[in-house]
Amino acid sequence: MNNSETILIIDDELQIRRLLEITLSASGYHIIVSATGKEGLVDAATHHPSLILLDLGLPDIDGQLLLKKLREWYAKPVIVLSVRNSETDIIQALDNGANDYLTKPFRTGELLARIRAAARAAQSLPDSAVVETDSLSIDMASHIVRKNGEILKLTATEFSLLSLLAKNSGRVLTHQYILKEVWGHGYTGQTQYLRVFVAQLRKKIEDNPARPALLITESGIGYRFGE
Amino acid sequence: MKTGKPEQGGISGSRKPETGQYLISAAITGIAALSCAPLAGGSHYHVVSFILLFVVSIMSTFLGIGPVLLASTLSALIWNFFFIPPQLTFHIDKPEDLLIFGLFFIIALVNGILTTRIRRQEVLAREREKRTESLFRLTHELSKASGIDEIVVIAAEKIEEQFSAPAFLILQDGNNHLMVTGRGRKNIPLSLNEAEAAGWVFSHVKKAGNFTAHPLTVNYTLYPLQGNKINPGVVAIRQTEAFNEEQQSYWDTFIAQITNALEREFLGELARQARFLAESDRLYKTLFNSISHELRIPVATIMGASDTILNTEESGNIQKELIGEIFTASLRLNRLIENLLNITRLESGHISVRLDWYDINDLINMVLEELEDELKPFSVQVSIPDDMPPVKIDFGLMEQVLYNLLYNAAQHAPAASEILLTAGTTESGFTLQLTDKGPGFPETALKQVFDKFYRVDNKKAGGLGLGLSIVKGFTEAHKGSIHVENAPGGGALFTLHIPSEKPDFDIPNQTIK
């Protein structure tokens, strides 16, 4: 694959920067690296990268704050890197506008897949669009969902859940965000609804509900629509 | 702290007969004399003297010495005036009457003094009994107390109750240094003077402060707590007057009890510390040996393999194989770090279980995906009821539980064998069961498999022996239980029971589109 796209890496660890630079350059991306948050902000403003990889644990600026500052003017995807066991940090980062996250240590294959997905998602689709996967087609305008050509019977809630995830295909949506969007503000603590509806929805849309490929669980964080 | 009237500890006794007592004594004497009036003027006036003497004796059993003296004087005078002929004069004719009159006085006096003394001794005995009782209660409460801090509280409370004066303790830190803050008076640090005085008392093992030979300009009297092997510290009491002999010996016994209790705890604490040091030493050695081994193997692999790649012209398959080894080694390192972090979380007691609703299918899928490579050689069967409701768990912790159980099975079961994972609901929560077709555990090992650093001998798998103790720890963090047995058909069977709420809602919005 030949990309002329630019990726900005903001990470204070030299080894991680080098690894990412080598791996991503090999995949054809143009790479800029920043070792500090301040440097990162400057680089982002001067180079207008098409995607930013941001480490949350920076020495000079809190990663979450940096993310907020970036989001004041930077609209393209940001993928957050963090250490394991920090679900609250990740959820906060997603709330602050990150598109996706990866926990260290991660596999580079996974990283490349996330970068591609984020880039695709960035080309946002109009409200009337039809989201299509191998077996599923979701018509946002007419609210019709087809699986292998056959129309599926979905409840209103099931449809708004599915369309919300599909519209943000590839992007991780947090539990709270989904509950707020689908059920409304009063329901943000009710993850039990979400579990039940996701399980129900999976039975209808997944080829193998036991090993879901479309409604993917992000442990402790939320869900993502996979294509 | 007791707020009621303090019990009187001194030996002040009840030697202050009220005027009421004098009135009673006069009244009784008068009544006795009146009732003897029919005998007046006869030759039976001697009998009257006996009656009056008898009445005085009776009175001395319940009146103080003053009223008894009054009674005897009055009786003698009345007898003389009204009964001894010539009546209505104080004149006595017969010498034997004079003798009886004198004896009357002496008998009444002796009677009064003797009975008063007996009564005073009785009061003293009762007081002593009260003290013995208090000492007994003190000993009892001190023996019930667990830990130095509790003893300090009880001691200060009991001293204040028994000696009606504020008191506090200043203890040493276990290394023969008196602690100026902390254990002792509730959160009030000592003033410089007080600390100095306490230090002096502690190092000289002599009392000082008020009413002693070493006043040391403090408001307290400070006594050393002198034990057999250790001097636990110093006790300070704000006395308002010097102790008398009786109080002093009571006080000495009292603080001896407190010292004993404190010394017992101090020695216990030292012994515990020694045991703890020995235990942590043993743990350190085990940890050091196994961690250095477990860390070195993958590091050695990574170093060796990458070195070969960097320094040989060889390319193609061999390089790829070496890189594969590096990858495997790094996975092993990652797993090791994960387990060490988890056991540290458990050991530190800083595990907070964040419960939320999850689909058990998601949990199992997640772990199966993470262990895809390890589980490839096996036939993994998952059985979850269709109507399994969401369960309330900490996803991250349960993920580690299941991961370690499955990883363990994959390490021990023969290739191509079946690994069976079953979930089900119960009254109070849900169960997870994992069966493999491995060798199972030796009967003797079944009790130890969850112990830290325990590894069944002669097993191919490396590892620190932490996996199953993490499983147990995280399960128990959920207030759940885990049980292991050998399955009837061979292999290990782990059963987990995790308590969980049931979702309580009607599924809303069921309109079909």
Automatic annotation (TrEMBL), chain A:
One of its GO terms (cellular component) is cytosol. It holds the Pfam family Response_reg. SMART domains: REC, Trans_reg_C. GO terms for molecular function: phosphorelay response regulator activity; transcription cis-regulatory region binding. InterPro entries: CheY-like_superfamily, OmpR/PhoB-type_DNA-bd, Sig_transdc_resp-reg_receiver, WalR-like, WH-like_DNA-bd_sf. The modification 4-aspartylphosphate is found at D55. This is DNA-binding response regulator, OmpR family, contains REC and winged-helix (WHTH) domain. The lineage of its organism: Bacteria, Pseudomonadati, Bacteroidota, Bacteroidia, Bacteroidales.
UniProtKB/TrEMBL annotation, chain B:
InterPro entries: GAF-like_dom_sf (IPR029016), HATPase_C_sf (IPR036890), HATPase_dom (IPR003594), His_kinase_dom (IPR005467), HisK_dim/P_dom (IPR003661), HisK_dim/P_sf (IPR036097), Histidine_kinase_KdpD (IPR052023), KdpD_sf (IPR038318). It is a multi-pass membrane protein. It is found in: Membrane. The chain crosses the membrane at residues 20-40, 47-78, 98-118. Keywords: ATP-binding, Kinase, Membrane, Nucleotide-binding, Phosphoprotein, Transferase, Transmembrane, Transmembrane helix, Two-component regulatory system. It comes from the Bacteria. Pfam families: DUF4118, HATPase_c, HisKA. Its EC number is 2.7.13.3. GO terms for cellular component: plasma membrane. It catalyses: ATP + protein L-histidine = ADP + protein N-phospho-L-histidine. This is histidine kinase. It comes from Lentimicrobium saccharophilum.
